Amino acid sequence: MAFPLRKRLRCFLLFLLLFCVCSHLELSLFTSDTLTLLTYLCKDPKIDDATQEPENCRNMQAQVECFPAPNISCRLQDGREVGFGGEFGFNRSIPCRNVGYSYKVAVALSLFLGWLGADRFYLGYPALGLLKFCTVGFCGIGTLIDFLLIAMQIVGPADGSSYIVDYYGARLTRLSITNETFRKPHQSL
């Protein structure tokens, strides 16, 4: 069965795009992390109103559609230049937070029902919730400590997800030093 001319032309253009991008710009076929700035344009992700995070957030990553910027051209080995108008695209991963528990609810439960362990039950710590319930919040001291820990977002949900925080609310980010980050030494005066 012979392919129609349009299908062959599309396959050729797709092959030409992949050949140009992969061989001449030295890029990986499936990732876009090494593309230079302004050579591609990505659409804004669709944001969920309740969580203020991308709707397709899975495992701390969301996918957005990207396309080559207008008038991008590649120079082939034989010297010809081929331009792309944005008809072929790819998906790019962006970081996002997996959310599931409301920060407001957790703080309110800790403040008003912390002595019953309701905050720990809500966040997914049933053993600590039961212990707080049986000891009346560790005689009030555990209630105060838990309220501070939850309010400062040090204690989060047990499943590792983040709190749902209002868009303009106080969202904390933990800073850590790993092999990818380092401390810059102070320069002497």
UniProtKB/TrEMBL annotation:
It is a multi-pass membrane protein. The keyword Signal applies. Residues 101-147 form the TM2 domain. One of its GO terms (cellular component) is membrane. The keyword Ribonucleoprotein does not apply. InterPro entries: TM2, TM2D1-3-like. Keywords: Glycoprotein, Membrane, Signal, Transmembrane, Transmembrane helix. It is found in: Membrane. The chain crosses the membrane at residues 101-118, 130-155. Pfam families: TM2. Residues 1-23 form the signal peptide. Its main location: membrane. Belongs to the TM2 family. This is TM2 domain containing 1.
